[in-house]
Predict the structure.
Amino acid sequence: MASVRRQWSHLLSGPLAWLATFAGGLAVGELSFVLSFAIAAILILYGRDAAIFARCLLTRVTGSNERAEQLVTLTAATIRGMGLGVVGVALVQSSLLDLGFFAIGIQAAGPLTLVALILGIMQVPQILLMLPVVGYVFLYEATQPAVIFLIWNIVVGLGDNNRPLMLRRGLNVPMPVILTGVIGGMIVDGPLGLFVGPVLLAVSYVMLLEWLQQHPV
């Protein structure tokens, strides 16, 4: 009996350790998500005061009102671009996919919509979700509604092409810099890094260009 118990405990130790690690990572991700919304709410509530404080701080650091205003404007434009290009596009795409799921009669429409929203925020192509769902619909539904559902998903998936345009709206920063900040920030710091990463890279890029212009090689 003891040997059987030891054997089962040995077999279950690996999956249980993975489950504990996964649960810990999920808890950290949820905490980061809540923290990001709390910070966003505070910034929205005290947005004007935060902008004044940022201008005063950057003026003291850079020694120039013009440069401080430029950096504040760049930061605001970057955050606005993240909201429109990442969160906004993800919300629109997931809502349109949700309409298709309900129209075709998929029972798991709610969870699938949530997965689509998360994938959109994480910058993962929606086709990874659409392909298995479309395959399922073709297996269990008639051909005509399945084809219409496929066309609908293709049209919704084309919304990914609008994301770069939204990200660069009002910015004079190369697209690779913004995308690197988005992906890197998301990997390092979750939803909060989605905004912090591109802001840091965009501001650093502009300051590097100014430094190179002032100190040419």
In short: The longest helix spans residues 2-45. DSSP finds eight helices and no strands in the chain. The CA atoms of residues 4 and 10 lie 10 Å apart.
